[in-house]
Amino acid sequence: MDNPLIRLAAHAASWRDRPLPEDVAHHARRALIDWFAALLPGVSQPPASLMARVLADQRGNGRAICYVDGQAGGLRHAALLNATASHTVEFDDIYRDAGYHPGCPTIPAALAAAQAQASDMDLLLRAITAGYEVGCRIGLAVQPSHYRCWHTTGTVGTFGAAAAVGVVLGLDETRMAHALATAATMAGGLQQAFRGEGMSKPLHPGHAAEAGALAALAASAGVTGALDVLHGPVGFAAATSEDAGKWDKALASLDDHIAITSMTFKNHGCCGHIFAGLDGLAAMQAQHGFGAGDVAAIHLGGYSATKDVCDRPEVATEQQARFSAQYCLGALLVLGGVRIAAFTPESLADPRIRAVMPKVTVSLDPALAADYPARRAANLEVRLTDGRVLRHHQPTRKGDPDAPLSDAELAAKFRELAEPVIGTSAAAELLDLLRQGTALPGAIP
Fold first, then answer.
1. Taking 70 as the threshold, does the pLDDT of residue 1 lie above it?
2. Of 69, 185, 200, 306, which sees the most CB atoms within 10 A?
């Protein structure tokens, strides 16, 4: 077997100078728009807001913008805090086949590096594309078994950040390989961190962005890593998945299919493993015209992560609610959507949502589990108080590559999330820059 790290490093390094197809650049801009949409609501929330205060004296000098407090500083400082903020409200993108959120570790590292180097939009888009290529493909190699214990965004995200920063720094394929090798041994992020209480989950991409940047900077200075660390007998894949990695699958079509062209952009502000259930319930409502008060029981059949991660009959905190199928299905029925407003203190205490939750049950559907992670489907059964029993199969999720958000829908999502934070005028200016500008985004008024 060819060394997968060497192949990925050469592929990543090539994005510095290779032709950037117009459609790939367009998809990279969409990813950048979506990342800012996820970032801005999180900049004033913990843990990023708490981290910004405690790390203020470690900002350092530099031109990288920390959007959490609006100040310029060092690359790693900005990457850490911006990545953390962008994973807080659970609106960040997904690479479905790897069960991975590539934007929140990759884009803040790439952007901070590009700002630090006074680069332009073209190089930023190339760096983002390269980072997505590396992270998404390593994710393919270790899934689905990796997700039993590991949070892919924290682990695989470290590679994506390293590759992206490496492109900005101009690493050749040899130094890029050493950047990825060093990133491997700093990758981390445990599932238990978000199955229980606490604020650790958004720190996973924060750490990945900072550690990936550190690995690239180290490689640029000549620091070397173990080049067999991905596929070796005690390497990354062996330690975090059921075998030494599905590298043939991960490296297939390396120059023909670009990962960033197949992203899922979230249409709900919660865990993506609930999305098919939400889309299916909304479709049933539209067809049959029932409301929360008409529902006697809802059963959601899903794939493994729907049951394992999102079957939470009781919730007390915002994070728990974002990972509760019971809460989110109730919020959809009561509020008409699962957006930012669904997780305010008022909504968390809403007796109408709480009344729906005990009526919702979740189970593992073996047929749907067999298709995971390449397909994310749901089977729903809704029993109404008038005795009717309704059934629906939801084959995919709105926002997935086979049912994508249009450019207009993505822009509407951006405005919805950005305008309450930075105002209508600033949001319009930023959106225009992200859509067609040649300069980098900088500080936001």
1. no
2. 306
